[in-house]
Fold this protein.
Amino acid sequence: MAEPPAHLPMWLEILAMGFAGAFGAAIARSRHSPIYGTIFAGVIVGLGGGMIRDLLLLTHPVAITSAVLIPVVAAAAVAGALLAEWITETPTVVLALQGLSLGLLVVIGMQRAIDFGAPIAVCIFLGLITATAGGIMLDAMTAQHSAALAQSNYFATAAFLGTLAFWPLSQYVSFPLAAVVTVALVAVLRVVSVRRDWKAPEWPERGRRVD
């Protein structure tokens, strides 16, 4: 498939994936992963969602075709691992960084899909995949329950609401405003939902859960 005209700045892809890689490595180190495992986890968190996005769009993954993405994300993972104690021992910092990471990944996931002329439902789906796939992989590698599937506060819900804000703003106002609003919205929802114990929407309970 031919590449469409690019509206997604490469620097934003690098920022989003590097930020996610640093946060992922910090979380992996807090779960007592060794040096290699910590850096590998950071790279997976940073690049995993974007690679799945590009494969579903039938295009060459940006992480593979770019000469800088993997080195930058690996370096960000090292930095995140070195700062892990500071990051993970301050709850507000953890929540804010997690929200910023989610928001940035939503933006690059959706805009890449929009550049390909994908329908709105596909854009939303790929925004969510880009934002959450790396974290799901990290949880699986460190034998944790997936935050995207089991989080009681807004996590995937915050990312989903971010996609609903990004699409109309990017289409009818401007990409920069859409990006800023989306990242801010997702980060604020993530922090406030935990601080005020807002629960993600759940199905009504009917009988006992089957594990």
Q: What stands out?
A: The chain has a mean pLDDT of 89. Residues 91-115 form the longest helix (25 residues). Residues 10-195 form one domain.
